[in-house]
Amino acid sequence: MKRSHILLLIAGFLTLIIGSFVWFIITWDADNEQPIGQLTPAHIERATT
Predict the structure, then answer these.
(1) φ and ψ of 7, to 5 deg
(2) Is residue 39 within a helix (H) or strand (E), and if so which, with residue range?
(3) 1-49 pLDDT tens trace
(4) CA geometry: angle 13, 15, 17, nearest 5 deg
(5) What HEC string does the chain produce?
(6) C-alpha distances out from residue 28 to 15, 22, 33, 37, Å
């Protein structure tokens, strides 16, 4: 492969990765997704003696 072919493959790969990330951000709908983290601490049950 020529150097220009390798550079074109790298550029195409980067374009695909960046394009898929942009598509993910554009189509994200926070109302339809569950939150990843918790806003309040989880309740911990403690044994009493």
Answers:
(1) -65, -35
(2) none
(3) 899 999 999 999 999 999 999 999 999 887 887 777 666 666 777 777 6
(4) 70
(5) CCHHHHHHHHHHHHHHHHHHHHHHHHCCCHHHCCCCCCCCCCCCCCCCC
(6) 20, 10, 9, 17
Give 33's contacts (C-beta < 8 A, 6+ positions apart): none
Dist. CA 33–CA 31, nearest whole Å = 6
- d(CA 42, CA 39) in angstroms, rounded, equals 9
Check residue 29 and give its pLDDT: 85
Chain-centre distance for alpha carbon 12: 20
For position 49, what pLDDT does the model report?
64
